[in-house]
Structure formats: structure tokens, C-alpha cells
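URGENT: need a sanity check before tomorrow's submission.

F., can you look over the Putative oxidoreductases (Related to aryl-alcohol dehydrogenases) record below? I want to be sure the sequence and structure line up before it goes out.
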Amino acid sequence: MKQRQLGKTGPSSSILGLGCMGMSGMYGPAERSESIATIHAALEAGITLLDTGDFYGSGHNEILIGEALRAAPASRRDAAQISVKFGVMRDPKGGRLHYDARPAAVKNFLAYSLQRLGVDYIDIYRSARLDANVPIEETVGAIADMVKAGYVRHIGLSEVGVDTIRRAAKVHPICDLQIEYSLISRGIEESILPTCRELGIGITAYGVLSRGLIGGHWSKDMAGTGDFRSNSPRFQGENLDHNLALVDALRKVADEKHVSVAQIAIAWVAAQGEDILPLIGARRRDRLTEALGALDVVLSKTDIAMIEQAVPKGAAAGSYYAAA
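C-alpha cells as predicted:
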């Protein structure tokens, strides 16, 4: 497995990371045994970075990863790096309440994550969103205290803009920013990506297949009960028709290279810079195998031009999230 360093101060990691969110209900029910088997298959393939959030399934995802790591061979378990997001408050039904990134909350969330994961430290710890009521300096400062105490190795950011990135970096070295980046979500290219590169901060790109939309397997009416996508504007009505037409155009490019749509979409993200690490959200072994095939896809300048002609910048219809 090829390696990439997460920023100038972060750890060396596998070129692909495994995003585990979908194993805990975001896209409808997932089979526990298959989820654990997928984590094991990822580790066996050389993937080291496992990404989670303490609010995924209200702790379910961390417990699942902890169980998978305990059952993995020692060499794979020791090589695993865990990236954890925190700060989302949930009610008993799983609904979101608000964000809490106060210093005391940071340390409280961390204590529970360590317990659920069954580890002594978290490799990368980050607030899932900016808490509008707490200066980023206080949040990062609290995590920095946990770095000094040995409970966290590196500090990351998630879903924040240029001003927040600069302020955070003055408090403590930031290894990476986790943010959406794909062929149909290229907003970071304008100012966020250049800022991260200026400061030596890596990008951990989630949504590289836009939650399956450009993975080549999506069709109308696939979103079922409990699936986030049933309410996502990109997956609705005329927006979906438009976006699936983009996928069809991308499929023609993929067919010429004898690869799948998902593989060419992942390869495109990986080709955008050595400082970008794509997260793949596979929750089944067959989808994991397909995603790993992207590592064998070599894109020439001509290939990239054809891909971007098939899916022009800003061509997607509908936002990622509903307005609320």
C-alpha cells in the first residue's frame, strides 16, 4: 500500500483511508459481521487509517471498530491509526441537538472514545464542526493539553474555513483538514486548499463518491428508511436525473480505461496532490475491493482532462445537505 504523510507534521498513512460512518446506520441498516469483516479486509490490504466519529450511531461505530481491532492480528492492530471526530450532541432517538466544543466537553468526549475503542490514545482528534459559541483557539488548546498528556497524537480540523484554519494553526500544529472533495464537490480549490498547502496541512477527503452518487451503482429510489440520502437535495427529483447523467458521461471515460466509475472517481481525487488522502466509505468487502482497484489506475493529463470534461467543475445539481 502506498503511503502519504498527513501534512508536514502528521503521521505517514496509507494512501486510502477507510471511512466507517456507513457501518453505523447513516445509510440505513448495516450488517455487523460484514462491517467487521470489511475492516479486517481493509487492514489486511494495508489500509491503516480508520475514520470515525463518536456520534456515529451514538457510539456504535467506535464500539464496532474496537471490536474489529481486538479480533485483528496484532501486526494489523498495531499499524491501525484512528481518526476521531467529536462535538455532535445527540438525543436518545439519534437526532442532532447542537455542537459542543468547550474544553471540558473535549476532554469528556475523549474519555468516552478511549473507552469505547479500547485504546490508550487517539491518533488524530478533531472537532466535527465549528462550535459558534467557542473560539477555535480554546478547542484546539484543549486538544493540545491532551497531546501533552499522551491521550492524543495529532490534531486535525473538520469542515472549517480559511480564517478558522489560520487561527487554529497558531495554537498547535494541525496535521490535516477533513472536508468534502470530489469531482462534483470542488469548492475547496478556491481558497481552502491553497491555505492548507501554504500552512503544510494535509487534506483528508471524504465524500469522494459523493455518498455513492458518482460510484456508478446508484439508481432512482435506492435510498431506504434511515438513509441520509433520502433527504439530500442531490438525490432528489430533477437534481438526481441531472447528476446521474454526469455519471453516465464519466462511465464512458471509465470504460475506455477498462475500470469502474468508482475507481476513476477515487483515482481522480488521489491524483490532485500528494497532500490529499481519499477516504473510502465501503461497508462491504466487495465495495472495498472495487475501491482498492483505484490504486492501479494511472491517470495521464489527457485522462484528467477527459474526466473533467465529462464532469465539469460546478456541474452538480443540488447541495450536499438540506438547507436546515
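My own read: The chain has eleven helices and twelve strands. The longest helix spans residues 237-256. If you see anything odd, call me.
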